[in-house]
Amino acid sequence: MAIVELKNVAKRYDSMPGKKGAEHANAVEDFNLTTKDGEFVVLVGPSGCGKSTTMRMIAGLEHNTAGEIRINGQDVSSVEPRDRDIAMVFQSYALYPHMSVYHNMAFALELKKTPKEEVKQRVQEAARILDIEHLLDRKPRALSGGQRQRVALGRALVRQPQVFLMDEPLSNLDARLRVGMRAEITRLHRRLGVTTFYVTHDQTEAMTMGQRIVVMRDGRIQQVDTPYNLYERPVNRFVAGFIGTPSMNFLQADHHGDGLGGQGFSCPLGPRLQAALGEGGQRSSCWLGIRPEHLHQVEESSGRGRLEGVIEVIEPLGPVTMVQVRVGDTLVTAQLAAHLDVEIGDTLGLAFDPDQVHLFDIESDQALGLEPDSAASSTQATA
Ligand SMILES: Nc1ncnc2c1ncn2[C@@H]1O[C@H](COP(=O)(O)OP(=O)(O)O)[C@@H](O)[C@H]1O
Ligand SMILES: [Mg+2]
């Protein structure tokens, strides 16, 4: 088991397609993170934000161009990948087609001249954990996608590494299998307690699996936090929009007297929002963020925020219905009851609790009025 430390780590590739100018020259910039022993850390962010590059630097497959990577206190910059005691699982987990499942899993150990008995014992143990004992004699072509994925995991497992790196290992599986496998990986982690970095671009996967989540954008960490804190206290508009599904709605709001508002919506200001708006000087406008699940169809709404618009889309999902209404020039998504008595083209009024909204600076996109403890955790994340 291990504590992995990244300090001011950066990666600059000599040629980076589509990135010009010094400001955007780095694939990863100023990356700071220290894991706990046995922690499950998820890196999440849109394609190209630097997740794989970060993983490859931890594995030693790429050299960091700045900063320091330490494993259990030891600077690993001069340690070869094979000596780092790290096992990786990739999205494209090419199994050797001519080898049986057993030999696919045993291969790395045999290369290291591990005694035959021990190889056998480790492969069988991994196969038992992954429930693939009955497949050990098969060739990869005789396996389903999910079974192949298990073999790829097994191959990493038998090495009993001190760190697991998993880079989008479930992307090739269909949605249902992905949900099953993600629970299985979580169980596996609980059982083995190996420090794990897990990469995904899927915020649901990140939220369900990560003990801590690193949200990245353009090579930079935006926030490092628990799933709960990312949802409740996003530090900026990017994180707010990225975490949560469907995404948070953002309305550009004017500040007048004791309220925020714009075309088709208004929000009264209690002490919390007043204080948030006053932060760093008075503001005449801000972004008002409202999650779809915080919009409700209610008649009476004194003391509440309100918005109104024409329905453009109705999506019944079973337990809930997603409705999109045009408010001014913004399309707002609301998560409403399963059975709705509305039609496309109807005007719909919705209410929300001002205590549940998020405010963001109109220019910097930074969250306004975050409580001190969350401000501390986010500073820690980016310091
Ligand atoms: N070998 C490389 N040479 C040049 N640029 C690269 C190389 N690998 C990745 N990049 C660039 O670095 C950035 C981050 O890539 P990557 O780490 O693969 O992102 P992610 O895994 O988050 O999708 C991207 O802009 C990508 O184009
Ligand atoms: Mg990647």
Automatic annotation (TrEMBL):
GO CC, alphabetical: ATP-binding cassette (ABC) transporter complex, substrate-binding subunit-containing
Keywords from the UniProt entry: ATP-binding, Cell membrane, Membrane, Nucleotide-binding, Translocase, Transport
Single biological process term from Gene Ontology: carbohydrate transport
Alphabetical list of SMART domains matching this protein: AAA
The organism's place on the tree of life at top rank: Bacteria
Residue ranges of every copy of the ABC transporter domain listed in the record: 4-243
Gene Ontology molecular function: any one: ATP binding
PANTHER family given in the database record: MALTODEXTRIN IMPORT ATP-BINDING PROTEIN MSMX (PTHR43875), TREHALOSE IMPORT ATP-BINDING PROTEIN SUGC (PTHR43875:SF15)
The protein's name in its UniProt record: Carbohydrate ABC transporter ATP-binding protein, CUT1 family
